[in-house]
Design brief:
The complex is a heterodimer of chains A (118) and B (250). With 118 residues, chain A is α+β, with helices and mostly antiparallel strands. In chain A, 53% of the residues lie in helices and 15% in strands. The longest helix of chain A is centred in the C-terminal third of the chain and has 30 residues. In chain B, α1 runs antiparallel to α2 and α8 packs antiparallel against α9. The two termini of chain B are 23 Å apart. Classes of the chains: A alpha+beta (118), B mainly alpha (250).
């Protein structure tokens, strides 16, 4: 079987977070950025404008649906997860867990490994 | 609604990367919303309007630098389609197989049209082939063959080049990719050669389409180069037209 590569395992982090947060409830861009910051304990911060191109791509892939709605007295584009987005989220979570597991294994191996020069 | 200070700079960067106007408008609109939310958040936590002015640069930083944002937006836009994700496959490896398919399709169409015309002449107008004096219709034959030649030599490469330019424009792919495609198509189109023999008797007419190849400097300069130059000029015009279409839409 051909080995699957995961070149975007770090590039895919915002996508994974967006899908996970939208699986809980529909949100607009600003809300999503704040939710990422809060959920990650302020550890994950990034150029906040970058979230929109990712949202637009996910929408064009059919994983998200958007609608202009009035929230808090202002018109905003609210995004929600589609059925295809849920499937993608499941796949992304599985891929992420396998990567984290693999990295953890390497780190533990390094702890027990013998030094190259003694 | 407030606009980020670098809104115009971001628009210029996005346009420079060939993103479609509708996409740019949508992105800028959502960034305006986001910036307004940032301002509101700051004003509720700090209150003073002067402080807000002073910190406009900070908010802009929080939103992202225009160039970095535009690069990221273009990457994400290209990632939407196969053509955008794989420009080498589409614009370097793709043109020649596409050209071949286009030639096969065009030739098949011409044969079918010819068979159809033949059927119409024989069954509708009851023109019998044996009774036609071919020598009396040499001009008609010549005109038909020249039209056929132009159609089969020029039409498929131009169609493929136009299709690739359109793909590049719609997927915000850098313009060097369709230019590479047009160069490859022109290199092959320059090799095309056609010869024909007019009919004096039934079934005597011939059209031969093939590849002409000679390594002599004379052939290169007098035959190949003019044909290649004409083809690449058409290709570059198509690229230019695509760029203008994008600018007009902007």
């Amino acid at each position: 079987m051909a080995k699957q590569t995961n070149p975007d395992f770090l590039n895919g982090v915002p996508e994974l977070l967006i899908l996970q947060l939208l699986a809980r409830r529909a949100m607009y861009g600003y809300e999503l950025v704040r939710a990422i910051e809060e959920s990650s304990g302020q550890v994950l911060e990034f150029g906040e404008g970058c979230i929109y191109p990712v949202l637009h791509r996910l929408e064009s892939d059919g994983d998200l649906a958007s609608r202009r709605e009035t929230v808090g007295g202002r018109s905003r584009v609210v995004y929600r997860l589609t059925a295809s987005g849920r499937k993608r989220l499941v796949a992304r979570i599985a891929a992420w867990r396998s990567i984290v597991g693999a990295v953890e294994q390497v780190l533990q191996g390094a702890k027990h490994g013998k030094p190259a020069v003694s | 609604m407030a606009n980020p200070p670098s809104r115009d700079a971001l628009r210029t960067e996005l346009e420079r990367r060939g993103l479609p106007p509708a996409y740019i408008e949508r992105l800028l609109g959502e960034l305006d919303d986001h910036y307004t939310d940032l301002l509101e958040e700051r004003s509720s936590s700090m209150g003073a309007a002067r402080k807000l002015d002073f910190e406009a640069g900070d908010l802009q930083k929080q939103l992202g630098e225009p160039t970095q944002l535009a690069i990221f937006a273009a990457e994400q836009y290209r990632a939407r389609s196969f053509w955008g994700r794989h420009p080498v496959m589409t614009f370097v490896l793709g043109p020649l197989p596409l050209l071949l398919v286009s030639w096969i399709f065009t030739a098949t169409m011409i044969v079918w049209i010819g068979m159809g015309l033949n059927y119409v002449c024989e069954h509708w107008f009851e023109i019998e082939q044996d009774k036609i004096v071919y020598a009396d219709h040499l001009w008609v034959q010549a005109a038909f063959m020249v039209a056929f030649t132009w159609f089969i030599v020029v039409f498929p490469p131009v169609t493929v080049a136009a299709m690739l330019c359109r793909t590049a424009r719609r997927n915000a792919v850098e313009w060097r990719w369709p230019i590479i495609s047009c160069t490859l198509i022109s290199l092959v189109a320059g090799l095309m050669a056609v010869s024909y023999h007019l009919a004096l008797q039934p079934n005597e007419g011939r059209i031969m389409l093939g590849v002409d190849w000679d390594l002599s400097a004379r052939w290169m300069l007098l035959v190949y180069l003019p044909k290649f130059a004409a083809a690449i000029a058409i290709g570059l015009l198509l690229v230019k037209r695509s760029q203008q279409k994008l600018k007009l839409a902007t």
